[in-house]
Each structure stands twice: as C-alpha cells, then as structure tokens.
User: Fold these one by one.
Assistant:
Number 1:
Amino acid sequence: MSISCSLYRLTIDPILKSLRKEVAALLSENCTVIELGSGTGAQACALADRCSRYLGIDLNPGSVACAQARCKEKGFEQCEFKVVDGSSLPFLKDKEFDVGTCTLALHEMQADMRLMVLKELQRVSKKLIVIDYASPLPHSFAGKGAWFIEKLAGGDHYAGFMEYQHLGGVLPLLKIAGCSILSQQKSLWGIVSIVISQD
Ligand SMILES: C[S@@+](CC[C@H](N)C(=O)[O-])C[C@H]1O[C@@H](n2cnc3c(N)ncnc32)[C@H](O)[C@@H]1O
C-alpha cells in the first residue's frame, strides 16, 4: 500500500467514519452506485453492503489500486474501480446507475471541471447524492480546521477550495446543472452538506 493511501486511512478516514454511515443509510437495498473521485475506497467499503454494483472512478492510479486492494480484502466483489477522468465517461449509458455520488472531491477541482464532472454524474445516474464542504463554513473549531487542512494541501487544491467557497458550494452548482434539490442536511459538526437531487 502506498504511503499516501496509508496516511489517508490513518488521518482522514477516522474523521469521516460517521459521515459514511449517514450516506449508507440514504441508500436503498441492492442499489447500483457510481462514485466519482472514489479515492482510497473508504466510501465504497462503507456503502458496499447496500449495493449490487459499485463503480468507483478516480484520476489517481495509486488511489484506485488502494481502493481495489481494500475491497478485495473485504470480499466486496460488487465493487469495481477505474482510472478515468470523471468528466468524460463515454463507456457508461445514460441513467445506468440508481445513485451517483461524489464525496469531498468537487471542492478541489477548478470551476469548469467541477461542472463537467457533475453533469457527467447526472447523465449516468437516476439520483445524485453530493457530499462536500458547507459554504459558508461555520466559524467554529471544526470550520477553522477544515480551512487549515485545505490550506495545508496547497496549490491548485487550495485554489479550487477557495473558489468553491466563493461560489457558494454544492447548491448553486447543482442548480446550474439543472438539478432539483430533494433534500439537504448538514453533517460533521456542520462543515459538510449532504445534498440529494434529481434532474
Ligand atoms: C479528497 S479525495 C476524496 C476521496 C473519497 N471520495 C473519499 O470520500 O474518501 C478526492 C478524489 O477526487 C479525485 N479526483 C479529482 N478530480 C477528478 C476527476 N476529474 N475525475 C476523477 N477523479 C477526480 C482525486 O484523485 C481524489 O482521489
């Protein structure tokens, strides 16, 4: 396992454990799920029991290798991962999946990429569950911690996060993509929004 994969599992995964449980509770039994920006596969492991098929898409080959190894170790044969740019998925049919999800990935992208990824997720999914930072973030210890972690990531990642915050987060993005908001809830001390939407 790569160092970055081990580091993510040791530091970020424990913080996100309760969030992943909340997301799993939103899925119906035996649904099919696609996740864009699936990272090291923690979300896949948390949702796999509720899914008959789970496709994780990520640009980073190291993260995909880590996600594949984790799911294999747990015997989640319904989980598959591909190294692909989430903004173009021509090998998938329209509305092929019951649920399209994206967890804490949109905020690190540039605005045009963010919209392209969301539109492609919308094309291949019947319903969207989008999870990302609340905007604005609360002026709490947790909110300041989120700013700190993103600043630490630096470079394009931090630039994307700043722009995401400036543009108002997930809701305006979903509206631009033409989605109707079905529900929204806050999680993780108010720093994360979970938004469910449909065309
Ligand atoms: C912060 S990680 C989140 C990982 C995972 N969703 C989780 O909950 O642990 C964001 C991931 O999005 C991926 N990503 C960024 N831009 C992408 C794109 N255009 N297509 C696919 N994956 C992308 C990154 O490689 C990274 O693994």
Note: Strands lie at 31-36, 51-58, 79-83, 97-103, 125-133, 180-187, 192-198.
Number 2:
Amino acid sequence: MPHRFSLLTLAVLVIAIFFVNLLLLAPNMLAHAADKPGQAADQKPPYTVVNGKVDLATFNGYRRYGESCLRCHGPDGAGSSYAPDLTESLKHMTPDQFNEVVVNGRKNVSTSSNNVMPAFGMTEDVVNYLPDIYGYLKARADGALGRGRPKRIDGDD
Ligand code: HEC
C-alpha cells in the first residue's frame, strides 16, 4: 500500500510540473511569436533620406512635429527638461507603441515628476499624419537625419 501511494504521488508530481512549465513557457512563446514581424532585418525604414534630403512624407513629419510636439519635446525631437528625448525613445518604440502614447497621452505620476503627455486623438493635424511623424523621428533616432530643417529630395528649398 505505501508503495502504490508513492507511485501515485510521483505521477501527480510529474503531471503538475508539466503544467507549471506549460504555464511559465506559454506567455514567452506567445511574446516571441508577436515580436517576429517587427524584427525582420531587411524591413524598409519608415522614412526616405537620400544624401541628407528627405521625401515628402518625412518632411511632412518634420513640419507636423514642429507644429504640435516641439514646444515640449524640443527642437529636432531632442528632448527638454519637461519632455523626453524622442530620438532616444524611438530607438526602442514600435509604431504601435508610439501611436498609442500620442493618441491617448500619458501621465507620469512618479514621485520626482508630474509631467503630462497630452492626448492627440482628437487633433486631426496629428492623428492623420502619425506615420509621417513617426518616420521623421525614427530617421532622427537612427542617425539617418541630422538636426535642423531638412531639405526635400524633390523640393525647391
Ligand atoms: C504639453 C507638452 C507635450 C506635448 C505638446 C507633446 N508631448 Fe509627448 N510627452 C510629454 C511628456 C511630459 C512625456 C512623458 C510622459 C510620461 O513620462 O509619462 C511625453 C511622452 C511622449 C512619448 C513617450 C516617450 C517614451 O520614451 O516613452 C512619445 C512617443 C511622445 N511624447 C510623442 C509626442 C509627439 C509625437 C507629440 C506631438 C504630436 C508630443 N509628444 C507632444 C509632453 C508633451
């Protein structure tokens, strides 16, 4: 009788460990599967810079940034004492994460600061051009574009 009991205990233990592993590993596997699409090394960047000049979309991103974001995030996305350096943020943020923050805003309620990122979900000049703004800032984050007003590939300026 004691012998059978220990075998049963062992079987229960093995099954329990199997399920615990499954619970621990499943979220990891899901996260990796979700990561994959954004990580393709040969993916086209979300901007066009040729010899320091930009395409229309990237230039539009620069303009929209200047109108709506510069007053807090500083010239060229480089950050200020009030708002973070977006050329750093966009080294890690996906377009989805970027859109989420810009559309919904964010409030930092840490002990050291109480700075607010406004929600732009209702601002047409911003929500209609999120990919352009992301593209411009991503070009800055990647070091593909320097500071200041960019020249346009097809432009007169
Ligand atoms: C009124 C000032 C203000 C304006 C205007 C503003 N931001 Fe922000 N933004 C902030 C602050 C402050 C934070 C940090 C909030 C926090 O820490 O939770 C922030 C955070 C962000 C972040 C997250 C950065 C990170 O590292 O997590 C992004 C992306 C961002 N802003 C993009 C924009 C864009 C794009 C615009 C223009 C459309 C814009 N912001 C306009 C103040 C502003």
Note: Helices lie at 2-35, 56-68, 70-73, 86-89, 95-104, 124-127, 130-141.
Number 3:
Amino acid sequence: MTKVALIVGSIRAHSSGAQIATYLTSTSTPSPLPSVLASHDISLETISLAELALPPFTEDIVPQAITPPNYPQPEVSKWSTLVSSFDGFIFLTPQYNWGYPASLKNALDHLFKEWVGKPALIISYGGRGGGKAAAQLKIVTAGGLDMRVAEKTPALSLPRGVITGPKTVSDDTSFLDVFAGDLKEGVEEFVALVNEKKE
Ligand SMILES: Cc1cc2nc3c(=O)[nH]c(=O)nc-3n(C[C@H](O)[C@H](O)[C@H](O)COP(=O)(O)O)c2cc1C
C-alpha cells in the first residue's frame, strides 16, 4: 500500500496544528483527505514533530553527504528510517512572523536524500491562511530539497481568538468546513503526483 504522512510542523504544547491535523485526518469531518486518499489505496499517518523531539541541527557533516540512515545521532537515524518509509508528505504548517516554524525547518534540514523526488502538499494556517509560510516552505521543499510539490497550497484562515489568544482551535473546528473545496483540489493534485511516481 502507498503510504503518506501528514507532518505537523508546530511543536507548541497546545498547538492549533494538532487539532487541525485531527480534523483533516478524521472521517467524521468534511475533510476530503481521508476519502480521496483511501479511494486511491493510499494510507495516511500523522507525524507529530512535538512527539519526535528531534535535536537541533548541529552536525558538521552535511546530510547530503550521508547515506541514509547512517547519521551520527540515533534519533536522526530513526527519523531518516521513518521518512524513508513514506511515499509522500503533506506538510501542515502554521505561519510565525511571516514564515514557517523553526521546528519544521530543523526536521527538514536533518535529512536530504530521504526527501528528494518525493511528492508533497503544503497546507498552511494563520490569520489570513498562512500563505507566506506556505510560499517559503514551497521554495525550500521544491527548490532546496528537490521534492515534487503540488502547485495548490490550501490556506486555512483561523478565527481571530485563535491567532492572538493563548487558547488553540478549541473543540469546535467547524470553521474549517469552508476549506473543503480547496483541500480537495490540493489533495487530488498531490495524489496525481504520488501516482505519477509509481507508473
Ligand atoms: C511566534 C508566532 C508568530 C506568529 N505570526 C503570525 C503571522 O505572521 N501571521 C499569522 O497569520 N499568524 C501568526 N501567528 C498566529 C498563529 O498563526 C496562530 O497562533 C496559530 O495557532 C499557531 O499555530 P500553532 O498553534 O499550531 O503553533 C503567530 C503565532 C506565533 C506563536
């Protein structure tokens, strides 16, 4: 079976990202991700960078020079093996000060060969949908890491209380329902990229 991972970029203790990921991967919300992927026999697994707790990137050897998974740090070797086991990635990123979070950049920079050529879909969120974070992440993944990135980048606008307040999305994630069309377009383009590789 083809395997895809949803990588949650925020590592905040009570991140909106975790709640949005639950919404996106649930079969009991209007999220089109589970049904579109299942209809192509593609499984979806959530990866929480918060749970992985990767060390900060401090290596002298550039990952480009390493044959996976032979990294000096065991946590990074595990990360390498995990990433290698997937056929594609959906990155879920918040916008922090017009960019994407350091936690996600750190997770990307630890590896190289594991990402190259793999299909990707970027889903962002923020006050106005986090489009600037998505644009940055697209440059890094499509350019620096040579991934095959979907053009469409669904951008989920958060209600004002979520952006400024200490509380996260709360249990009521119904404000996400209006993005079903954008998400469907994005995931269908992503699936086409995943299937292209198999042919
Ligand atoms: C350090 C920081 C910077 C932020 N900068 C932006 C921003 O530039 N644009 C925006 O729309 N929201 C911004 N926000 C609001 C976040 O998009 C919002 O808090 C979101 O819930 C953060 O995602 P997370 O909870 O999954 O970490 C910022 C939040 C933080 C913590």
Note: The helical segments are 16-25, 33-39, 49-52, 74-84, 102-109, 131-144, 160-164, 180-198.
Number 4:
Amino acid sequence: MGVHILVNKEDGYQCLYCSVSMWAFGPIFYQEEDADEFLDWLKPTDPRSLTDKELENKVYEWRKIINNEICPNCKCKNINTNGGDCWCAECGHKWEV
Ligand SMILES: [Zn+2]
C-alpha cells in the first residue's frame, strides 16, 4: 500500500500521505494516537479511496472505539467496563483495553 505516515518530530502529530502521488491528506493524528493503528483498523479500505467527509467519519468512529465509547463489533454504546476488560451488552463481544 502506498499510504505512509508523516510524523512531526516536535509534537508527535501524524498525518497520512500517498507515496505514489506524494500528496498528504486526511486528519491530523494526535501524539497519543497511532495512525498505523487507524490504517490497520480501516483495512481493507484504502483511505485514498474515501472522500474527505468519509475519511473524517471513519476517524470519528475509530476515535470512539479506541476511547471505548462504542463497541468495535456492533458499534452500540452499551459497553460495560471491568478493570482491563470491556464487554458489550448488545452483542457479547469482549476486548481488552
Ligand atoms: Zn457490541
């Protein structure tokens, strides 16, 4: 995949760029976020195939998942947290935090 990550050495902010067209695009990821993790989560979708608005919505959804606001499986908000574990009351999905 020709999508790579640029990192600002000073503040750790990251952004995506295409190494074929040498064009940066999409959101700015904060230092505590991992843009690589976002790309993994987005697979098999190529972020270059999305419109700005679609990519924005995906990042918004991903941030809700990494912040444990919605279930990564069914995307509901019916989440129970118990120590290092999360459990979805809607679909029964379990995951570690
Ligand atoms: Zn669920």
Note: The mean pLDDT is 95.
